[in-house]
Amino acid sequence: MTSSYKQRETVNYLIRKSPLISFIFVALLSLACGKTQGTRSANAFSKPLATPQVSSDKPKIVAFGDSLTAGFGLTENESYPYLLQQKLNADGYDYEVVNAGVSGETSLGGLERIDWVLDTGNVKVLVLELGANDLLRGVPVAKMKTNLDEIIKKAQARNIKVLLCGMLAPPTMGADYQRDFNAAFPDLAAERKINFLPFILENIALKKELNQADSIHPNADGEKIMTDNVYKELRPLL
Q1: Could you state, in chain order, the average pLDDT of each consecutive group of 10 residues for the chain (238 residues)?
Q2: In what order do the strands lie in the sheet with 161-165?
Q3: What is the pLDDT of residues 82-104, one digit of tens each?
Q4: What is the rounded distance in angstroms from the CA atom of residue 79 to the CA atom of residue 33?
Q5: What Cα–Cα distance (Å) separates residue 198 from each residue in 12, 14, 18, 133?
Q6: Which residues contact 120 (CB under 8 A, 6 or more apart)?
Q7: DSSP label at residue 159
Q8: Which of 23, 29, 37, 74 has its C-alpha lying 20 to 30 A from 91's C-alpha?
Q9: Residue of 91, 94, 115, 214 marked active site
């Protein structure tokens, strides 16, 4: 399949998802506003409290991202990195999945901590899921793209394969911002020749039975589908 064909398919996908994206953005914005009213600063959410837990010398798959990766509102055993580990074990893949998600993380926060995360030892694959919080804060698309590109380059310099998980902007951000934001992820994937998952919440978003009360973060059942979404694009890298 040619690169131009894939890009056309991505554009068509984004057009189909526009109403869904608008709903998600409104809900995310409401959730973000609630957080900013607290005593903790926005920057505090981008700083990890501890290094990722590593329990063996096995080759590592690092799940690196924000609250969707961290498993916001769930137990550790319900989070997608944990479920991904179970899938790998069941299929005979000898990897250890490291959950390096931080709720509220931005692309800049990710860039600031990526070196020590990748230097935890024997990392083979990086699953990169960032961008939603940049969108909520109105970070210029060029800046977000540069941050993500630097993260990808740092991984590739270590011979680590990358799976990029895209995020989508709503029409309410303005046509130019929406176009540039939505294009940033597939463009990066094409430029860096890495695997790409257009929407990590595919078949989950807007389904009440698969989401927590905030209508944004998947519940335990939604996490299972999100794990399948990631695994489908991850498996060719293994």
Answers
A1: 53 53 52 38 37 71 97 96 98 97 97 96 97 94 98 98 92 93 97 96 91 93 97 97
A2: 96-101, 60-65, 123-129, 161-165, 195-197
A3: 999 999 999 999 999 999 999 99
A4: 24
A5: 12, 9, 13, 17
A6: 51, 52, 54, 60, 62, 98
A7: T
A8: 74
A9: 214
Is the pTM here over 0.70, yes or no? yes
Annotated active-site residue in 46, 67, 79, 107: 67
Alpha helices (H) in 37-79, listed in sequence order:
67-70
Residue 126, SS3? strand
Residue count of the chain: 238
Catalytic (active site) residue 41: no
The packing angle between helices 3-16 and 175-192, to 10°, is: 150
Domain annotation for the chain: domains and CATH numbers:
3-38+58-237 (3.40.50.1110)
Q: What is the CB-side half-sphere exposure of residue 133 using CA atoms within 13 A?
A: 23
- Please report the pLDDT score of residue 186 as a whole number: 96
Dump pLDDT digits (tens) for 54-78: 557 899 999 999 999 999 999 999 9
The region, left, alpha or beta by phi > 0 then psi within -120 to 50, assigned to residue 7 is alpha
Among this protein's residues, is 217 annotated catalytic? yes
| Known catalytic residue at 67 | yes
The candidate with the shortest Cα–Cα distance to 81, out of 132, 66, 197, is 66
d(CA 36, CA 136): 12
Cα–Cα distance, 235 to 163 (Å, whole number): 10
